[in-house]
Specification:
The complex is a heterodimer of chains A (410) and B (131). With 410 residues, chain A is an alpha+beta fold. In chain A, 17% of the residues lie in helices and 52% in strands. Chain A has a 16-stranded antiparallel β-barrel. The longest helix of chain A has 55 residues. Chain B is of the alpha/beta class and 131 residues long. Chain B is globular and about 60 Å long. The chains are: A alpha+beta (410), B alpha/beta (131).
């Protein structure tokens, strides 16, 4: 009995084992083949990706675009606004191509078309950069003047929290690019980076040669805090003309119109200009604060000014409401005494002060699209035009500007 | 009883895998890296020869990784890279679409590093940092 049972069991055992083995083998073989195929497919995919990467990796194309609608409650001319709707003042389209010449050398070209310049194509960046093994980076060509925290991406609205960097500070220097070079070095600490950058070159703006530009800035960041300091100087040479909108009447219709007149004003004879700026920002992913303060000094009658702003914002999912307070004030009004007609015009054009308050909302509507709403109220002009050439003869003493804007990167 | 136990065990397992954390991986021969080096690598800083790979935008593991390592939210990261790109300072790391693609990319690309959910680990890659 026992034997028989044992025998049966013994007979059954190899069957059971072989069944188990076979099914196991089949199963194992299946799995391996499937896995192998999956792996091979993945490898082919990876190789294909690498191959395409090899072909395209030398070139990199990117772009950005902003469309803005701006209107104001009067024609003082703040931010290029007027009481009629303006769609072109802050609308722009930019294309960027980066070509990797070698692993460490690249050519960068950024072409911009701006509504305020009638969509003429202009290169904002066009330079060749080289990074040495030591980490020192050299750039030469047409570059942004790195005076402000947002200078490097002034036109890339998507990369800025607000509808625009505050005009009180960013409008104090009338040129944004220069031809020349810079050298920078980034010191990497455990959790932060200190970047030292020195720059030099020349520029030109509205008939003024901006020569012997020389400056340096220091930026420290741990990606939450950013601290920045900058100093720059140059010599200004040439005659400044200011365009003035003179209120008049249309001879045919009798309606009020403005005639733009260009008036040669100050002659700058190699006057020294200096720029000093400090800035700080904090961004923990939710709460955001940015502040900058700047001082511009120019020998002679040209405006010396102080300006500053603070922005606070708070991210709630896709929405970032923000508030900004900013000021601008010319510091050397006593150097422009009014003794006659032309000195009165000079004083009216070069003296200026104002304070502005903005409330806005950034809405990250899509992955690469931000929509911004902004209301900016500027006041405290004192007895000046507020710093707007177009307000010299009109004498509005405050203005509210409404903006709806979208910023895209692609 | 056995059934019940195995159900409990299974559900425990799935709970564990659902809670598995993001890990940084390299090829089997790769050496460990520090959290601050990982942060620099994925922000395009420093001068390491490692090649970082990201998961596609919108991936939950990607968000978890950046929350832990670079302390940047998805929106901040997007803004950060748009600044880097449009100042010619650098481009974001290449992306892959899945954990499987990440593993095979890392296994087949010299010096590549990336991140996956711990639950997707196998012996084709090695954990080089648990953030």
């Amino acid at each position: 009995m026992m034997n028989t049972r044992f025998n049966t069991a013994l007979k059954a055992l190899p069957i059971a084992v072989s069944v188990a083995l076979v099914s196991g083998q089949v199963f194992a073989a299946d799995e391996t083949n499937e896995q192998k195929i999956a792996k091979l497919e993945q490898q082919v995919k990876t190789l294909q990706n690498q191959q395409t990467a090899n072909l395209t990796e030398r070139f990199n194309f990117n772009g950005f675009m902003s469309g803005a609608y701006i209107t104001a409650d009067n024609n003082s001319g703040y931010l290029g606004s007027s009481t009629s709707a303006d769609f072109s003042e802050e609308s722009k389209l930019g294309f960027q191509a980066i070509f990797a010449i070698t692993d460490n050398t690249q050519a960068v070209m950024q072409l911009m078309m701006k509504g305020e310049n009638d969509w003429d194509v202009e290169a904002e960046w066009a330079y060749v950069s080289h990074r040495f093994e030591s980490g020192v980076q050299l750039r030469g060509g047409k570059l942004r003047v790195p005076l402000f925290m947002y200078s490097d991406y002034l036109d890339v609205g998507y990369a800025q929290p607000f509808a625009r960097p505050p005009e009180e500070v960013y409008g104090a220097v009338p040129f944004t690019t220069y031809t020349g070079g810079d050298v920078s070095y980034a010191l990497e600490f455990d959790d932060s980076t200190l970047t030292v950058q020195a720059f030099g070159g020349e520029s030109e703006e509205s008939g003024i040669d901006i020569k012997n530009i020389l400056g340096a800035n220091l930026t420290w960041t741990d990606e939450t805090w950013t601290l920045r300091a900058v100093y720059g100087q140059s010599t200004l040479d040439g005659t400044t003309s200011r365009s003035v909108a003179i209120p008049s009447q249309d001879p045919n219709t009798g309606l009020p119109i403005f005639i733009d007149a260009s008036v040669p004003l100050l002659t700058l004879n190699n006057e020294k200009a200096t720029f000093t700026g400090v800035g700080a920002s904090y961004d923990n992913g939710q709460f955001l604060a940015v502040t900058e303060w700047t001082r511009v000094e120019v020998d002679g009658q040209y405006t010396d000014s102080d300006s500053g702003y603070i922005t606070l914002g708070y991210r709630i999912n896709a929405f970032t409401p923000y508030v900004t307070a900013a000021y601008y004030e010319s510091q050397d009004d006593d150097q422009r005494p009014v003794v006659g007609e032309s000195s009165a015009l000079i004083a009216a054009l070069f003296n200026g002060q104002r304070t502005s308050y903005s409330g806005g909302l950034r809405w990250d509507a899509l992955d690469n699209l931000a929509v911004k709403f902004d209301v900016t109220y500027a006041t405290d002009f004192g007895d000046t035009s507020g710093g707007f050439q177009s307000n010299v003869l009109q004498k509005y003493d405050n203005v509210t500007v409404y903006t709806v804007k979208f910023d895209v990167v692609f | 009883m056995k059934k019940l136990l195995s159900i409990v065990a299974l559900s425990l397992c799935s709970m564990v895998s659902a809670q598995a954390a993001v890990v940084l991986i390299g090829a089997p021969g790769a050496s460990d890296i520090s959290a601050s080096d990982a942060k620099k690598l994925f922000l395009g800083k420093g001068s390491s020869s490692a090649v970082p790979f990201e998961l596609d935008e919108g991936n939950a593991t990607r968000s978890e990784f950046h929350d832990k390592v670079t302390s940047k939210s998805d929106a901040q990261l997007k803004a950060y890279w748009s600044k880097q790109v449009f100042t010619g300072k650098g481009n974001p790391p290449a992306t892959v679409s899945s954990a499987a693609a990440m593993k095979s990319t890392i296994a087949s690309t010299p010096n590549a590093i990336g991140y996956i959910d711990e639950a997707d680990l196998d012996d084709t890659v090695k954990v080089i940092l648990k953030p």
